[in-house]
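Researcher: I'd like a candidate sequence for this fold, 90 residues long. If you have to choose between options at a position, lean toward the conservative one.
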């Protein structure tokens, strides 16, 4: 996987602070998926969102029950906030 998360911390409001292998770091807002589909678990039990871990093989943040969020989605948001161009921007 191209974007590898090496550290993550759950923050209030379904925000996730992440640091990537290349040193880029920042906060991604996951409130748009919290409470929807399989991510309803986070709103049903907020402690579950706080239980984020990094899968060492994929570099993806994961939660109990096999939930994960694609690192490329997180990278795009964090890089945009930091003004760092990504391949998606050409």
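Model: Candidate sequence:
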């Amino acid at each position: 996987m191209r974007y590898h998360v090496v550290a993550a911390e759950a923050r209030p409001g379904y925000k996730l602070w992440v640091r990537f292998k290349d040193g880029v770091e920042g906060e991604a807002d996951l409130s748009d998926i919290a409470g929807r589909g399989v991510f309803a678990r986070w709103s049903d039990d907020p402690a579950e969102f706080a239980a984020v871990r990094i899968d060492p093989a994929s570099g993806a943040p994961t939660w109990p029950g096999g939930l994960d969020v694609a690192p490329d989605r997180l990278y795009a948001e964090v890089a945009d906030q930091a003004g760092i161009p990504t391949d998606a921007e050409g």
